[in-house]
């Protein structure tokens, strides 16, 4: 706040000086022109400085939020695993209970691994030099696999995710593992930000124009405020208010999705009519 007030006050003083200077020196044209130029330079510098400060402040806030989120994401499963291990060590637990404990611990380990992998992927996502493998990937098969995975990970009923198969074989070239990560992130978000009764539809089709595939992942969940539709793809960004802010997350998922899709020569965008109206994510990828 100090730096913001300083920047804004300095701009105001410089503008006042500039106007005063013009009024006092109307006749001394050369001085006047020089003065105007110098003050214009000072004012531009101060404005740039203030804009830079505002951006730094926002970035700092996002970093803090990210560190809090990651700490929480790491601590919760570790605390849970520790508790189960202590119980197993100190109490006589029946074989069925023991099996349940192992299942919970495995789920917690998966959660830990997921968080660590996301952080690692986000770290490497900006490296442009990575070469893409030249494998041909069938989008229909890949999406079917991702949907099956999310159904089993989140214990979802078959009817929760409706999948419309493409009428023809649609293949893209690139990294199957990366594209699986991208679609899994989008599907995971669709479930995560849908409240208690998720209803999701996934469609793959050939775009009307150009040789592109379109993948549409639509949910009827919490929705996204219009001002955030572009920002959600930035690293660490999470919608700051509303029900989505209460849901756990690191703000890295969509950043990773966008990096992967871009590396495959495609685009990803989000559409939503605002909070409570559901969201639609559209991925476009060039076909073989
Ligand atoms: P995370 O989910 O870990 O917070 P993401 O990068 O995946 O990070 O998402 C960024 C933000 O975008 C989320 O915090 C959430 O507010 C919003 N968002 C993403 N997907 C959806 C969705 N399907 N519905 C509503 N909001 C979403």
How are the SSEs placed, and which strands pair?
Elements: H1 2-24, H2 29-90, H3 95-124, E1 135-138, H4 139-153, E2 161-164, E3 171-174, H5 176-192, E4 200-206, E5 212-219, H6 243-246, H7 253-263, E6 267-271, E7 279-286
Parallel strand pairs: 2-4
Antiparallel strand pairs: 1-3, 4-5, 5-7, 6-7
Helix pairs in contact: 1-2, 2-3, 4-5, 5-7
The structure holds adenosine-5'-diphosphate (ADP).
Task: Provide a quick synopsis of the model.
The protein has 288 residues and is of the alpha+beta class. The protein has helices spanning 2-24, 29-90, 95-124, 139-153, 176-192, 243-246, 253-263; strands at residues 135-138, 161-164, 171-174, 200-206, 212-219, 267-271, 279-286. It is extended.
Keywords for this structure?
288 residues, five-stranded mixed β-sheet, two-stranded antiparallel sheet, 7 helices, binds adenosine-5'-diphosphate
Helix run count: 7
Q: What is the CA-CA span between the terminal residues?
A: 53 Å
What value does the average pLDDT take? 90
Cofactors, ions, other ligands: adenosine-5'-diphosphate
Q: State the order of secondary-structure elements, H for helix, E for strand.
A: HHHEHEEHEEHHEE
The dominant shape is: extended
| Relative helix content | 55-70%
Instruction: Report the biggest beta sheet as strand number plus sense, adding barrel if it closes.
Output: 5 strands, mixed
- Kindly estimate the percentage of residues that lie in beta strands according to DSSP: 5-15%
> What ranges have pLDDT less than 50 throughout 5 or more consecutive residues?
none
The radius of gyration is 26 Å
Work out the oligomeric state of the chains in this entry.
Answer: single chain
Task: Identify the strand order in the major beta sheet.
Answer: 2-4-5-7-6
